[in-house]
Amino acid sequence: MNAKKSILAAAVISAFTFGIETAQAAQVAYANFTSAGSVSNLTLLTAEGMGCTANCDSFTPTNGGHGYTFGGANNVAFTWDGSVFTSPTDYIGPGSASNATLSSLTWILGRSWVAHDVQIFGPGTYNFDTSLGGGNPESGTMSMTVGAGQLGVHMLWDWNGNNNIDIANVWNINSKFSNCGATNTDNTITMSNCLWTDAYGNPAGNNANTVFQFASTDNNGDGTLGIPMAQGGPFVDSQYGGFNFNFNLHGSMTVVPIPSAIWLFGSGLVGLLGISRKRKIS
Fold it and tell me: Considering the entire predicted model, what is its pTM?
């Protein structure tokens, strides 16, 4: 009898340990995703307070308000294996495990760029130490809160000799990026949060009314879409703070249900514990 109890206890402990490790796995299946090719968008916005309130189509716009669009690309290629990370410790600096890629042949402000260490995150709050990148004198913490029905991304970005620049976005699913409403007040035109729609290299015809599979949001609530860049990087204003890089992505996604095996494991474990308890009482 003691031998049987020992075998049962060992089985329960083994199964319980396996279940704990499975539940705590940092990278878990989330969706089946199909890429739409090189048709996604990158929109660069100035920092909050550096938007445009007048002369927006000139070389001397009047600053103020929310972010002003100063660059971007509309032929960004995006791939994703459908998994999500669940802990900020999944980012350890350059060389972190990656579950997605972003690339484009379009130069940004006259320079080529490379995105790497791209990580897609599920719901939760994440804080990234920007000093881990090395090669770029960033400092401080970049934070994002991913809500239910949203996804987040953190990546490192190389541009013009500035390597490992931290970028983060939180995306709404099946949403527009911005309607870029132009407000006329006393002959003053205010333009903010506009999608980059340069006709060059825009195979999907992305525009203000485009619904993206993943659309960048104003996650820190300052009025400008995106999450500000960290201090010390090349896209930071000494007065207003970090600029905002927004990736808006096309594709097709079907959310993967939680595997029934997990629930079967849980109910089976409860059953085993119940049997063990009954035998002990009797």
Answer: 0.81
